[in-house]
Amino acid sequence: MPSPLSALTEAFTSFVFGKVETTRLPVRTSTGQAQAVYLPTAAPGLGDSGVIIGREVYSGKGYVYDPFQLYGQQLPAPHWLVLGESGNGKSSLEKTYVLRQLRFRDRQVVVLDAQGEDGVGEWNLIAEALGITPIRLDPMAALDGGIRLNPLDPAITTTGQLALLRTIVEVAMGRGLEERAGFALKAAHAHVHTAITDRQPVLTDIVDTLRNPNLVSVEPLGVSLDDVRAWGLDVALVLDRLVDGDLRGMFDGPTTAGIDLDAPLIVFDLSHIDRNSIAMPILMAIVGVWLEHTWIRPDRRKRIFLVEEAWHIISSPFVAQLFQRLLKFGRRLGLSFVAVVHHLSDVVDGAAAKEASAILKMASTRTIYMQKAEEARATGRVLGLPRWAVEIIPTLSPGIAVWDVNGNVQVVKHIITETERPLVYTDRAMTEDAVAERVRAEQQLADDPAA
């Protein structure tokens, strides 16, 4: 209790100068102790229109993403890159994303399924559940009346056919075509296109013309048939692989009738092709160009083109150039390209570094699952990720990823429903105990995101 003198002094001071606030001594503390004074905050989400992916780890909010809704407002391009080590949830994310997108009536998806076991691709269960028959590209089956895709299909423009033929040859040779070889191919294609009108031209026609060039197609340049035959010999040998070699049957005949391009889901099963062979990028080039000319239409339908093992596209300069055109063209017609790769270093340091960088720039959405520290740093440099995101990538648990949607960076836990679970976990090599352990781990993450 203050003394009478102190009370009198304070009353007089207040009367003359007004109320005087008490001055308190400063308090020394740490940021860890002082954090309680600040209200919790979280970065803004992407809105509530689209498909739900899961929930943000730090805020607990639901995470909704749809490139078609965000395009033009928050996204300059609707294309998406998914990265991460095997076994961390890339495949689960792809499959649930497609299943949820197909709930919208104006969606259509094409998947290039490059993985599988027991003779079928890993998208086989989802296709069966939707009543879809995958388009299985298999050299052995093609010889017995299996699926064929014709690079010279009349549905593809003559310019597109020639570009595709050049790409096939360049991928197989591992280098660009020389001018003379390119001229021989161009002359052969022009002759076949003009001379064959009663049926679909096929690759055999190109090979035969390269071996026996036509005088009319080369006469204007004043060169001899022997010269043109010599210029086109290497080209003929490469294309002969698709006619009589290990890839015969799939591309050396008219396109198989009855392929349903109006189905909500179209799955190209490439699991019978050696993923490490030169056949895979050739296949992807042919399928990509064929789809560009037969599938993408100005009908206001929103289309998703999902490519697994996409490094076969991005790492080849010749295939990447074809897909660059497809991506630029597709943006005007509602196409979202989804590329799934394991390591970004597989493509950015290769022969197609320039083309890879161009495609990566088109991908305004990047999802990164767990990577080793060195790979995470390399990924962060290429994609321009913030430092905090790069630091946590090596610590991410399965099912959790860093999402960068045109600079809006969040850590997101992917949620799988019980209905989706049997369609998503299709690895038949997993034992029941392993599945149960994974489910328990996911439940733990759901209960404690910081675990």
Give the secondary structure arrangement, pairings included.
Blueprint: H1 4-17, H2 31-34, E1 51-56, E2 62-65, H3 67-70, E3 79-83, H4 90-101, E4 107-113, E5 116-117, E6 120-121, H5 124-129, E7 135-136, H6 139-143, H7 158-173, H8 179-195, H9 203-211, H10 215-218, H11 225-231, H12 233-243, E8 265-269, H13 279-294, E9 302-307, H14 311-314, H15 317-331, E10 335-340, H16 345-348, H17 353-362, E11 363-368, H18 373-383, H19 387-392, E12 400-405, E13 408-414, H20 421-424, H21 432-447
Parallel strand pairs: 3-10, 3-11, 4-8, 4-9, 7-8, 9-10
Antiparallel strand pairs: 1-2, 1-13, 5-6, 11-12, 12-13
Strands across the major sheet, in which order?
Answer: 2-1-13-12-11-3-10-9-4-8-7
* Count of extended strands: 13
Number of helices: 21
Just give the CATH class of the largest domain.
Alpha Beta
The structural domain count equals 2
> Mean pLDDT across all residues, rounded?
82
CATH architectural grouping of the largest domain: 3-Layer(aba) Sandwich
Proportion of residues in β-strands:
5-15%
Q: Report the uncertain regions.
A: 428-438
CATH fold field value of the largest domain: Rossmann fold
